[in-house]
Amino acid sequence: MILEELLTKISDAQVLWVSPQRQMTAGALRQEIAVCKGLLRAKETSRVALESSDSIRALMWMIALDGIAESVFLVPDSLRSSDYYCDLKTRFQPTLIIDDVFTGKDPEKSGDLPGGDRAVASTRWVLATSGTTGTPKLIEHSTESLTKTCKLDTHRGREFTWGLVYDPFRFAGLQVVLQALASGSKLVLCNQIGNVKDQAAFLRENDANALSATPTYWRKLLMSGVLGNQRFRQITLGGEPADQSILNALKAAFPEARIAHIYASTEAGVGFSVTDGLMGFPKQYLERGIAGNQLQISESGTLLIKPEQHVPSAAGASLANSDGFIDSGDLVAVRDERVLFLGRDSGAINVGGNKVVPEEVEAVIREVEGVAEVLVKPKGSGVMGQLVTADIQPRKADADMDSLKKQIMAHCRERLEKYKVPALIRFVAEIEHNPTGKISRT
Fold it and tell me: Most buried in the list 103, 316, 404, 424, measured by CB within 10 Å?
């Protein structure tokens, strides 16, 4: 019951969670957890699917189930409404489903039956991968592996108010939740607010000074203009390659903040963070490892990581090769003593037999001053197989599009091989992002 024990260091009166609908103190949370445990007494809790769409309710249940359920499938909102969920739930085979209407009542039975009040050695938490490049996988983590990088200093933790823009049951969101809980920090849940501008306003209203988000989300946040002179103490980027332009923009906007871009995945867990203000990571990490993890580059150019702790799939199979390394699927390249993330291997565009990574081209196009956001994608070609195209969101709606297009093409021809230069550019009002905060590539 590691998660509930974290609450013992926090005073009853301290506000822990704030959402647009309500707030919850540590004392109220402890009481609600006790109620949740009482509702489990007559239930079979070996394999629980946690489906509640109310983020605070879902997190309450998560803490209550820790040390009681053997295995818990943490179901994010976006997955529950997807075409994949029915199959994933069948694979998981839950013995109990906790949703928005769950009350613990069982009309066929009466009295207290043994079930939820028994203890297990360690609850296994089942998380789904994002599925942005294929069918999601189910990955198991222990409470210990999920909290291994959490800082436990509650005295310092009270100085931070974390914003949550991720779904709390995605790996990145769960890391924010657990860090805030472990350090006794307030957590501002704005993940269910409909748009970035309103989320930014809610963060500002609640004095959030720490935020973890994708580079795509940070770009949208900066463009919203709502944060103004907000003073962040901690800024974290993850989920996508952080190019130099976004790192520079964040440093300029929030000069007092500690800025870190992290490498983490549902499959491998938290790998490492980089705080030197430069994109990628030092080449030395390949030789000496980092944060207990060993790193290699595969023959196909993807990053291999050997985590400190073994991470199995929910089916029990190992995700690692015979040497213990997990293939991240992230293409990397060594340039000037840095290892740079290029993008996902599975998303590469094949132009006449040449591999083009969309994220690499996007990073180059974002260097053009008038570009706010860009989405590079393939277009079928009878001659080349595929061609590179780019949807561009200009920084100003009234920009001279012909002039901007000429600047973009000239910059691409200067910085990219010929086959990587977009064959077609289209200007759009907005580049959408998906529920995980990444550019939507579907």
Answer: 404
Q: Are strands 96-98 and 47-50 parallel, antiparallel or unpaired?
A: parallel
Q: Looking at residue 400, what is its pLDDT?
A: 94
pTM (global) more than 0.85: yes
Residue 109 predicted with pLDDT over 50: no
Q: Which of 115, 77, 76, 71 is nearest to 91 (CA)?
A: 71
C-beta contacts of 5-11 below 8 A and 24+ residues apart: 6/181, 6/182, 7/63, 7/181, 9/154, 9/184, 10/154, 10/184
What is the distance between the alpha carbons of residues 79 and 88, in angstroms, rounded to a whole number? 10
Dump pLDDT digits (tens) for 249-281.
999 999 999 999 998 877 777 778 999 999 999
> CATH classification of 2-333 is 3.40.50.300, yes or no?
no
Res. 66 pLDDT band, cuts 50 70 90: very high
Are the C-beta atoms of 119 and 73 separated by less than 8 Å?
no
Measure the CA–CA gap between 208 and 186, rounded to whole angstroms.
9
Q: Is the predicted pLDDT of residue 105 greater than 90, yes or no? A: no
What is the secondary structure of 184-244 as a DSSP string? T-EEEE-TTSSSHHHHHHHHHHTT--EEEE-HHHHHHHHHH--STT---SEEEE-SS---H
Report how far Cα 176 is from the mean position of its chain's Cα atoms.
9
Helix axes 401-415, 358-365, angle to 10 degrees: 120
CATH of 348-427 given 1.10.287.1080, 3.40.50.300, 3.40.1390.30, 3.30.300.30: 3.30.300.30
